[in-house]
Write the structure tokens for this entry.
Amino acid sequence: MATKLTANVKAGGCASKLSPKILDQALRTVPRLSNEKVLVGYDKSDDAGVYDLTQPGGNPLAMVQTVDFFTPIVDDAYTFGAIAAANALSDVYAMGGKPATALSIVVFPQKGDIHDLQAILKGGADKIHEAGAVILGGHSISDEEIKFGYAVTGLIDPHKILTNAGAMPGDVLVFTKQIGTGVISTALKKGIVDPAHMDRSIEQMLTLNRLVCESMLGLEVHACTDVTGFGLLGHAREMALASNVTLQIAASSVRFLPGAIEYANAGALSGGLHNNREFVSSCVAMSDSIPSEIQSLLYDPQTSGGLLLSMTAPEAEKLMEDRPEAYIIGRVRNYETKPIEVRP
Ligand code: CO
Ligand code: CO
Ligand code: CO
């Protein structure tokens, strides 16, 4: 490839995500229209919205809708497209849905290399097809800074929607990927990344949450969300607040991508990480003995991150037997003083 895809990404963080604080303030002013067909709306801070399609006398059916797009976080165009698709599909899996259709969102420079755009679209299409979904169309505009992603619609049984509410005291918290894609992409932009670390991070970002989703659908899951832009603690916060519980996370149980701790130590912390910390830390009782780079990583924005599940210990055992990448990072307790408690 001639150009480096990340070269034109403006400063401000891996995915130039709007600060959760600003987003929260803005959404507060949007009028809420109640509608009985809306089973999950944006007021719940959930992964995706769910709309009931069930017809009188027909089988229960609902659609799950979500959208996600961002600036390049890797230099290879095909890989970027595929990661953007995996990331956009993730919210459907986090609700327990099955992706059905996708619309692409393309922002590309008028004078950009057409081969890059072709590769981005090809990477995205291959990943959407891997998920068993189809692309129906999309929309494109021209701008100097590349952005790419999808609006995805999935189908779901309205009685089997997994939201971030429902975590119960006594549950264990299961997570299915490793943390650190944000610091590793920041290390790439700083030119300090070890290619082997980048490759491992890319491999994880390309992995669909599909298999974990399929496994969990046969089990009793009380709450589920995917860990993406708001970081592990940001998404844990949403689950804790929606479920009215305290999530107790053991920092030493959390697995980090190879190189992540090293880059966090070297200060490869994105703007998004700082925004997350600013927004979320008041909800977190963080043990002082946790090294600062580990604390930072718990706020690191993830791209195409894993699923965070709340379920009983026996059900978690079954999931971990089925999906060896799944592991326990903590447990759910009655609400104490803070929504999240992080212990060493
Ligand atoms: Co999500
Ligand atoms: Co979401
Ligand atoms: Co999302």
About this structure: The first strand starts at residue 38 and ends at 40. The chain is about 35% helix and 25% strand.
